Amino acid sequence: MPGQNSAGSVHYPLGRPLGLLAVEERASQVLLCQAYPASAEIVIEAREIKPPTTQNEIKNLPSRIERLDRLAPDVMAVFLRILAREQFNYLAGQYLDIMLPQNRRRSFSIANPPHDAELLELHVRRVSRGEFTQQLFSGAAANTLIRIEGPLGQFWFREESRRPALLIGGGTGYAPLRAMLRHLLERGDRRPLHLYWGAQSRVDLYEDALVREWTARYPNFKYTPVLSNPRPEDAWDGRTGLVHKAVLEDHVDIAEFDVYTAGPPAMIEAIRHEFIARGLPRDQLFFDSFDFAPDVLAKRARQLP
Ligand SMILES: Cc1cc2nc3c(=O)[nH]c(=O)nc-3n(C[C@H](O)[C@H](O)[C@H](O)COP(=O)(O)OP(=O)(O)OC[C@H]3O[C@@H](n4cnc5c(N)ncnc54)[C@H](O)[C@@H]3O)c2cc1C
């Protein structure tokens, strides 16, 4: 979450995070989810972003893993049932935190829209040597009880805009975009919506068939899958390369669009640089960068020489 550091200073143990451009750092902007205080007093000016509803209070709630479905060798759908009488209200695109011991947390976007949320669906990518995701892939069972906190983040669709939208997902960055698209399409929104889904090979486009069905059902919806590393057995005759480059090739005038993007930090950083350089106004770009959790980044920083 960005803010304006108007007095005092902060530092980042691992250096400037990918989510903060050098030009933003020079303008005293800070990334509050990664910054550590470096002076006794700090004044932060925050621009308040009001969600379109007042009901999405952040709650810490017990829940149960109701079901696990393997979507791809490295992607698991996790279905959570909230075990509380309280309602869990959220906006399509937001994420939640799964709480680990010692108040540590792991963030995951909610992949289903609020109008179909009896269970909350997450799409979790296995991270090599990752504490939580490895557990999940090596036998976490249905019925496991966990605590979640949410809804979190400001990554929701600005429905008041009249511009067409480009939605760009890298890997499981598709998850929050899926929630947004289902929210819009299933409720009859007619604006042009174009999903670009970037993945390494065909198996990573784990809902390709479903998304292709949407193109047949909704005339205002377009879909472009882009593979960066197709395997010979994929027999892929679609687009190849980096997904954000495909978007730039297809749209000379990117400033006509609102752009929503989620996925690996390097992809988000490339989009922030290249789309803004191409003329996309900053306030038409919305993103969630899938960074590792703050406790892991801090631990890594402590291990640096
Ligand atoms: C807003 C947001 C939304 C997200 N949504 C999604 C989503 O929908 N789907 C999804 O798949 N991901 C999502 N992510 C990313 C997800 O949160 C991370 O992949 C997840 O936290 C990994 O958890 P883990 O416990 O498995 O790995 P961690 O234990 O956090 O480890 C991460 C990596 O750091 C390494 N590591 C850990 N400790 C150390 C150490 N001391 N020194 C050196 N290296 C170390 C591990 O080996 C591993 O490679 C999201 C992230 C954010 C911020």
Explain the overall architecture.
This protein is of the alpha/beta class and about 300 residues long. It folds into 3 domains: about 1-45, no CATH class; about 60-155, Translation factors (Elongation Factor Tu (Ef-tu), domain 3, Beta Barrel), CATH 2.40.30; about 165-290, 3-Layer(aba) Sandwich (Rossmann fold), CATH 3.40.50.80. It contains 7 helices and 17 strands. The strands form 4 sheets. The protein has a 6-stranded antiparallel sheet. The chain has a 6-stranded parallel sheet with strand order 15-14-13-12-16-17, sandwiched between helices. Strand 16, helix 6 and strand 17 (about 285-290) form a beta-alpha-beta unit.
Strand order of the largest sheet: 9-8-11-6-7-10
How many alpha or pi helices?
7
Which ligands appear in the coordinates?
flavin-adenine dinucleotide
- The best one-word shape is globular
The whole-number mean of residue pLDDT values reads 92
Q: Can you name the CATH architecture of the largest domain?
A: 3-Layer(aba) Sandwich
Uncertain segments of ≥5 residues (pLDDT<50)?
A: none
CATH superfamily of the largest domain: Nucleotide-binding domain of ferredoxin-NADP reductase (FNR) module
Q: Which value, in Å, is the CA radius of gyration?
A: 19 Å
Largest β sheet strand count, sense and barrel closure = 6 strands, antiparallel
Keywords:
Rossmann fold, 17 strands, globular, Elongation Factor Tu (Ef-tu), domain 3, binds flavin-adenine dinucleotide, 305 residues, 3 domains, alpha/beta
